[in-house]
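Exercise 7. Predict the joint structure of the components listed below.
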Amino acid sequence: MGRLKYYQPEYECMDYEQLKELQGKRLAETFRHVYENVEYYRKRCEEAGVTPDDIKGLEDLDKIPFTCKDDLRATYPYGLFAVPKEKVVRIHASSGTTGKQIVVGYTKEDLDIWDDCAARQLVAVGADENDIVQVAYGYGLFTGGFGLHGGATKLGCQVIPISSGNTQRQITFMKDLRSTVLACTPSYAAYLGEALHDMGLTPDDICLKAGIFGAEPWTEEMRRDIEKSLGIKAYDIYGLTEVLGPGVSYECAEQKGMHVNEDHFIVETIDPETGKRLPEGSKGELVFTAITKRAFPLMRFRTKDIGVLTREKCACGRTFVRMTKPMGRTDDMLIIRGVNVFPSQIEGVLLQNGYQANYQIIVGRENNTDTFEIKVEMVPEKFSDVVSEIEKEEKKLQNALLNILQVKAKVTLVAPKTIARSEGKAKRVIDTRKLHD
Amino acid sequence: MTVQQISIFLENKPEALSRLTQTLAQSDISLRAISLADTSDFGIARIIVDDVEATKKVLEANDFLVKVNPVIAVEIPDAPGSLNHILTILADNKRNLEYMYGFTGRKANQAYMIIRTTDIPKTEEVLAKAFIRMVDQSEIRNI
Ligand SMILES: [Zn+2]
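Solution:
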C-alpha cells in the first residue's frame, strides 16, 4: 500500500445522501449548460418537451433524453460541443468499428477533472508520488496514453511516456528505470509478461507492483495470468472516449468491481429494449451523464455496454457505486425465452470448462417457444472412447451454461475445425426466428 | 497383454463415417475390426489396425480427432457358449464392462473379442487366471 489511502476522500468516501444532493445540483446546472449551448440537443429536448426548469435534481433524470453514438456521428465534428472553440484545449477521437470518426473536446478544467479521476485510480492501486509509472498505452487521439499520463503527473509520480510497442525497450526500461506501475491494455500486459520470460527474466528482476489495464475486454483468467507473469496485482479501469477516457470508473484493492466517479458522472442501467431504468443489481445497458465537464458533457449517453451496479458497501471505504466489468454489448445481445443472452458469457463458460471459444449459437422457434442450441467443438482433452464419459462432460458443460445464462441450451459437440473461425456475429449466431413479420 | 485401439470422434451425420472410411481406404489401411457407438448428437468409431502410429498420423492429418488407448483382445473358439464363458468370468469377478465387440481373422474356427473395462490391468489378471488367451499388438498382424 502506498502512503495515501484515497486521493480525494471528501468525494470518494462521501456520504450517499450528500452525494445525491451534489449530483442533483450538478445535473441541473450541466443540463442547462448543454440545453443553452448545443442546438442539436436542445431540439431533441424540445421534441421531448423538456426544459431546464424541469430538471431540478436527481429525481428528474428520467425526463432527460438519451444521447447515443449515432448522435455523435451525425454532429461530427463540433455539433455537440457546449463551449466556444477557444475554450477547447484538447481533442481526442475514436473511429470505432464502423469506421466513422467521433471527436470529443476538453476545456482546461475538463482535463483537470480527468487528471483527478485517473489519479484516484493510481492511488487506489497503491501509488503515490514515489511511484514510477510506465504508460504503455498508445499516445495520440486514443485517450489511454494521455489519460493515465495526466493522472500520474498530477499525483506527482515519475512518468515514463513510453507509449505502446517496442517491447524490448519496455522490458529494459522496466528493469533499468525500475517502474513500479504499468498502464496499458490487458492484451499488451499479457504480451509483456511473455516477453519478460522470453528474455530470460523473472518478476524478481523488475520492480512492478501494480498494473492498470483497460480499453478492451478481458477475463478473470487473464487477470491471474498477468498477475503471475509480471508479479503484480492487476487492476481494471473503465472509460470511453465519449464520456471521458480512462477513469470513468476504477478498481480498488478489493478487485470487486469498479467505483464510478460519481461526483463527475451519474451512472444508470437501463433495459436496452425499452429504455426503462432498472433497479440496482439488475443487468442492463450502462448509461452515463457527465455533470461537471463543460466542453463535451453528454447527457444520458448509452454505452451499449452491459453491466450491473451495486451500492453494497466496499471494504475499501469508498462509497461510490461499483459497476461490473462490461459483460457484453447490446449489439450482440440475444433474447431467448425472455432472457438476455450474450455470446461473451457463453465464451467465458467454454474457456472455464476446458473447451475453446469455437462455438455457434443456433436459435429458432418451434411451437411458439424459442429453441436454443450451442454447437461446441470437441477438444482432445474431453474425448474418450467411452460414450458415457463424453456424455458426462457434455452434461457438465450444459449445467455450467445454465448456471450463467439462466436459460437452458442444448449443447451439441461437433468435430474440431468444423465451425468457421470468424469474429463476425453473422457466423457466431444463427437466428432463424422471424419475430417481426 | 493389450492391443492399441484408435477411437475417432464423429459427428452424427452419415457423411462423417464415410469420410472416415474413405480416408482409410485412400491410405491403404485395412481394418481388423471396427465398432460404432453413437448418441443422438455424436458418434465414436473404434478401430483395430496393424500399424497404430501410421493410422493415427493419417487420421490427424485429415483433421480427425483421435485417441489411442489399450483394450484387451481375447481369442475364443468360434462356437456356441464361448462368449458367454468370457462374460461369466467378468461378471463373477465384478469387472465393469464398458463395451465389447468381436471380429474374425484368417484362422478358421477362431474368433476374437475386444474387451474394454474400467480397469484394464485387473481384467487382464482375471482373464489370465481363467486361462483365456489374449493377443497383443504384434499378433494382430498375423491374425
Ligand atoms: Zn472499493
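Discussion. Chain A has a mean pLDDT of 93.
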